[in-house]
Design brief:
This protein is mostly helical and 63 residues long. The chain has three helices and no strands. It starts with 6 loop residues before the first helix and ends in a 9-residue tail after the last helix.
Length: 63
């Protein structure tokens, strides 16, 4: 599996995922907050299937 999520994109995905899950657990937002699992997992694994489909990558180019 090639990495296609890098740098700031990865950090933002992890933060957004954690915030959404935390808000769900606190009861602030409904069950829709569990969608935070998606950005959290894609940030942790550095791979986004949607990016693969559209041919996008935020990883720096390797020399």
């Amino acid at each position: 599996m090639k990495f296609n999520v890098g740098g700031i994109d990865r950090i933002l995905r992890i933060i957004v995922g954690i915030v959404l899950i935390a808000l769900t657990l606190m009861g602030t937002i409904g069950v829709w907050g569990w969608i935070g699992i998606v950005p959290l997992v894609t940030g942790l694994f550095k791979f986004c299937p949607l990016y693969s489909l559209i041919g996008m990558s935020t990883c720096p180019m390797k020399k």
